[in-house]
Write a structure and sequence with these properties.
With 336 residues, the protein is of the alpha+beta class. It has seven helices and 15 strands. The protein has two domains: 171 residues, Gcn5-related N-acetyltransferase (GNAT) (Aminopeptidase, 3-Layer(aba) Sandwich), CATH 3.40.630; 129 residues, Nucleoside Triphosphate Pyrophosphohydrolase (Alpha-Beta Complex), CATH 3.90.79. Bound molecules: 8-OXO-guanosine-5'-triphosphate. 8-OXO-guanosine-5'-triphosphate binds next to strand 9, strand 12 and strand 14. Its cofactor is Mg(2+).
Length: 336
């Protein structure tokens, strides 16, 4: 996806709020992090932690957030509950690698409430759905079983061991390295795997029938929609469309989906069959006819909060799409 810095709005996690750090947080941040039990687990935190470093650090997080380089956020109670600072959670981007490193800490007096997995899990899901990344990385000291358990709970996989310099420990320390991609992080805190529409076939996977469309504007650009946070494969770009319901034709399903998702009216006569995808996902086999459409009524509007992009055929490869779409993109580029 082309570089763009999405505006950041505070993220509710359920019980807490992830919001930018502010100058007034400095005193409490200092109180919570200037604690050996917390500082000893963090690579970039000195111990003792000087009070004025809290002001400096908070100032730098605002700049890096505005640049889209790093998202270091307060884990706080909601404003109605007093807004108390409980800890921090952060992401540092590596644009070239299309990855971001996740880190977090929670003040000792707030341990034991499941704050870290709730906050870090929320930020991980948001990042994969909204930033130009495909992967998250994280590390935990080899002797920090609590932190490794948090990462596993969110969906991170251990990928090896390494060493990192720890300011608080005065040198290099052994760490466990973790990674997570879109398939690893559950779409929401409570979500199970997506339920396929059809019952399993003996010895095989259920077939999921999805109708999709390449909407093409007068400039020959194709509309892609970004799968929003909370859905499987969130953050990938796809052709608008959706599951075909029992008794529906693919054309009727598309007409319904385009009205619901984009607010446009399309007639069957304007849907030209173009190609199809047949792709084995882990728990289902996707069969997806792709139609092309150049005529519709109404203005294309993101009615479900999804990001939309009109993309020139030569630029389609810049957008990360589900694996099933890769052959379709090649065909479409040649055709247009
Ligand atoms: N619409 C669409 N779906 C695609 C594309 N490529 C692809 O693999 N799919 C897959 O096809 C399925 C589409 O389902 P969907 O969008 O209607 O449904 P969903 O799982 O998002 O949930 P929903 O039932 O709440 O709408 C998803 O598993 C999606 O990953 C594509 O280009 N367009």
């Amino acid at each position: 996806m082309p570089d763009s810095i999405p505006p950041f709005a505070p993220l509710p996690t359920g019980r807490f709020l992830l919001r930018p750090l502010r100058a007034e947080d400095a005193a409490e941040l200092h109180r919570l992090v200037n604690d050996w039990e917390v500082a000893k687990t963090l690579a970039r935190v000195p111990f003792p932690y000087p009070r004025d470093l809290a002001d400096e650090w908070i100032g730098s997080t605002a700049e890096r957030l505005a640049e889209g380089e790093a998202y270091h956020l307060a884990i706080a109670r909601s404003e109605e509950e007093g807004g108390a600072l409980l800890g921090c959670v952060g992401l540092t981007l590596d644009r070239a690698a299309r990855s971001a490193e996740l880190g977090y800490w929670v003040g000792r007096r707030h341990w034991g409430q499941g704050i870290a997995p709730e906050a870090a899990g929320r930020l991980a899901r948001w990042a994969l759905a909204n930033l130009a990344i495909d992967r998250l990385t994280a590390s935990a000291l080899t002797d920090n079983a609590r932190s490794a358990a948090v990462l596993r709970r969110i969906g991170f996989r251990p990928v090896g061991e390494g060493e990192r310099d720890f300011l608080s420990r005065g040198g290099a320390m052994p760490v466990l390295l973790f990674e997570a991609g879109r398939g690893d992080i559950a779409p929401s805190a409570t979500a199970a795997a997506p339920a396929p529409a059809e019952p399993p076939v003996e010895g095989g996977k259920p077939i999921l029938l999805v109708a999709a469309v390449g909407l093409i504007d007068p400039d020959n650009r194709v509309l892609l929609a970004r799968r929003p946070e909370g859905k499987p494969l969130a953050g990938l770009w796809e052709f608008p469309g959706g599951k075909v319901r029992p008794g529906e034709t693919p054309e009727r399903a598309l007409i319904r989906e385009l009205k619901e998702e984009l607010g446009i009216d399309v007639t069957e006569a304007c849907l030209a069959p173009f190609a199809f995808a047949s792709h084995g996902y882990e728990s289902f086999h996707l069969l997806m006819p792709l139609f092309l459409c150049r005529r519709w009524q109404g203005a294309v509007t993101a009615l479900e909060g999804q990001a939309l992009a009109w993309v020139r055929p030569q630029r389609l490869a810049d957008y990360a799409m589900p694996p099933a779409d890769v052959p379709l993109v090649a065909l479409l580029r040649d055709f247009l």
